[in-house]
Amino acid sequence: MRFPRSCGTLVHPTSFPGKYGIGDFGHEARVFLDFLERTSQTIWQVLPLTPTGYGNSPYASFSAFAGNPYLISPDILVSKGLLTKAEAAKTELPAKVEVDYDKAFSNKDALFKIASERFYANLSAGDEKEFKAFKKENTHWLDDYVLFMACALHYKKQPWNTWDKDIAQRNPEALKAYKKKFKDEIELQYWMQYEFDNQWMDLKRYANKKNIRVVGDIPIFVDHNSSDVWANPKYFEVDAQGNRVLVAGVPPDYFSETGQLWGNPQYNWKELEKDGFSWWVDRFKHMFKTCDAIRVDHFRGFDEYWEVKADEKTAIDGKWVQGPGEKLFDTILKECGELPIIAEDLGFVTDGVEKLRDKYAFPGMKIIQFAFDADSKNAFLPHNYVQNSVVYTGTHDNDTTIGWFNQAPEGEKHRVRIYTKSDGAEINWEFIRLGMLSVSDQAIFPLQDYMNLDGAHRMNFPGTSSGNWLWRYTDAMFSSLDEDRIRFLIGLSNRKNDT
Known about the structure:
By secondary structure, the protein is of the alpha/beta class. Helices cover about 40% and strands about 10% of the residues.
């Protein structure tokens, strides 16, 4: 699918300001979307919206389908009569430039319990009908997820293969017993997913009415400690006890000398294919319902993936294995129709990856920060772009552009200054201008670069497991945005999309 020439911003909802320690789907989200509309931007790109697991990473989730309940807005719950203003006010936290995960989670857990009890106690016939319809529509993942989360909380979120054997192995009698034992928690989990869906879809409709497309993010791999692996072990490279046998990662690259050992279980693609890739079809259908387009993370893994034995300490000693390739995407295309997908094709791109990407006309990604470590043939230099691509100054895995420039080797800085005909004093705007004026159909920039922020405001450090996913902006940072400059560059580069 070809996308129109357009421009947008990358920022995750957790980064929004607000009163509850973590950004959510409330008022501040709409203030952000109003900013996009005022500046003629028509894309909002987010990270995965699924429940975060270890390290609060959106790429390590308890489910590939569920929504992160901590993005639910308490203020919206107040407007629905499920909380009082006083109850919500008791959980307010000071505004900071970092998410306060521990306090936000604890406070929201208490609020959600109150709101859930009121929801069930005052369920109207109309609401009950909608609630049942939601559960029925999502039964292919939701029933397993709510039981998984109830058990996970009981076992203090330890890996599911360390639980009591009867429930870890999904003994039918155990499933019945645990559903009865954790009935209250399961009802809470059902409600949180229903409320997440309602709040998110309302926010998406708000964006769409302003001609803003939401670009979601689908990680290729799922976390081992997830309802997906627990409920469908035959689809993953785990043994009879649920222990990982083969795991995912990437070999040494730009980000890490020892590669990245992600530890996600590899897929058992033969079993998936036997079932007509039904799990993947369901996953893509779900994503296309909740988002207007999808960035597919680590697209290379569908052509070839880096396979490492589970007992390895680094990703160095692995091997490339052939992925499902066209078989998978032909099936998804047949089942889903049009595929509005952006292929994350960074790193070493093989002919096979390019062939797979181009067969379905998926745009690839261009990162300006990668452009200056070589000569004029560097594929990330704007003069080498193709039209069917998406240009970024950097992504959530990169430093802010100012932070990158401050740390760059002098040789790269010199090439930047020559290429931009500048002294680098406004390097973020120089890179935004390069991206805007490039031939790429879409230009998407991290909000930090529009805000002139340095490396202290970076979102993620790949290959590290702590200190990530923390960044939030303040009202003062938002007020400092140069909307006139953004609007001018969008008009200058013909990225204003009024259709």
